[in-house]
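Hi everyone, sorry if this is the wrong subforum. Our group has a chain we'd like a structural model of before ordering constructs, and none of us has done structure prediction before. Sequence below.
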Amino acid sequence: MTGYSAMRQQMLAIASAQIRSIRNHLPKAATGSIFIALAALVWYGAFAFLGVALAIWIPLVPLSNIQAWLGAALFGVFLFWQTVPLFTLTGGWSVQLDKLQIYPVSTAALFTMEVLLRLTTGVEMLFLLLGACVGLSRHLGLPWGVPLLLLLYIPFNLFVSLAVRELLLHSFERNRFRELFAIFVISIGILPQVVIRSGLGMKLRPHFMAISNASLTPWHAEAMLSSTTFSFPAFAVLAVWIAIAYTFARVQFAKAARSEELLRPDSPVSARPKESRILGLLSRLLPDPIAVIVEKELRSLIRMPRFRVIFAMACFFSVLIFVPMGLERGGFRFVQRNFLPLVNLYGLLLLGDALLWNMFGFDRSATQTYFITPVELRAVVKAKNIAAAIFMMVQSTAVFVVALGMRLPVTNLNIATAFGACAVAGVFFLAVGNLTSVMIPRPINPTQTLRKQAGGQVQVWLFACMLGMSILIGFAYVARWALASDLALFGVLAIEFAIGVVFYRVSLDSAVQRGMRDRERILDNLSRGSSPVAV
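Answer:
Right subforum, don't worry. Here is the predicted structure as tokens:
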């Protein structure tokens, strides 16, 4: 068997195992799968429509205009493909090296499959590139076959995407650097809003066009190749860039493979005296065993890389993402007047993935301890809820401090409204989270910061909670508008909070009963290993 045939057989075996894994999970997540499929259909369908529009519209455009703007368009494709997965925490599908390196699979096969899986991070741009390729092929001013060279832009972006991903993941392995680096990368997400909603966009336009038309850039070389007669210098420039991207990707992938082989658990970290004193106060305020479990939750969560990144996003990124709308002149007045409540509620949604919807996710197989020790499951759920409430209060306070530090519009009414709205949303989120944690438990890898780990059903519950939160808080604002009184707003919030407390008590009883009844299913789901390809 030749090397190519062996690699092909290995890739087919991995793909077959992944298909079987997905098929086994589909019956247990039918509702979530349908919801995710519909959302993906709408999202990708819009880009497919744009691709078809490009195929129809490009032949009608003068060739000179195409040549003037194609470089900028390809530069935009490059930026979208490489940056959007970063600030949305969607790393796309990827090979699970820790699961596959124990099998006789060649590094070349793993690398090839990883490159192909990078297509999942840029499906939108694939539709646009294919549409542009068809449109250029139909243009009467271009020789036949030349527009097909536009497809060379795909492997270049695949190699760059793989290299960037592995570089970032390698950076995340450094404990002291991981969270700051993640926040820096994710904060790139606010740049488009800042550019669009301020005068900075017009100031940066000449620089953007200058970079797009730079002669030695890959997007300019690709634009020259696919919109004019064949140019050997442009082809050479693009070939060099593809070779550089391939080499960089291969080196980073080899480094990742070696790090997986040499991976060892982090050494235990001793608690700091100040941290111990603060957490020790819980034993005086709460009864055992709740105090012990709360202290354990706080200590473990603040040491988990994924939680630290999500918590920092809720405290800082939630402020930054609303800054452009809050500071824009003449628009989004509602955001300006209610900046703090909106930011706090958005932060709660971010925290939900780590604290609320799946409270046993970080425990994974260790959850069995809660069922074999004398501690009641009710005490465990209460303790986890108390720990979540503490983090939610800290998040709200941190948002307030950050807003003051940035000199954003914050009033006493804003502060009171923010804490009142968060109290209402928080108690309902805790109630719903108790139910979802025993209905759809899912293991979460605490070290993976650049990947969404919520299932389809969790996304459905998240959407429902977001809709419910909007309705609850919306009622309070409607009451203030109808009665022209701030007291009406706080009165409605107080009533909703009382209803939420009743709902929480009912959900706690239901969650405990269901958890004890379905404990085998819960432990089986939380102990389940990952598939060969991470989706």
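For your construct planning: Residues 227 and 475 are 56 Å apart (CA to CA). DSSP finds 24 helices and two strands in the chain.
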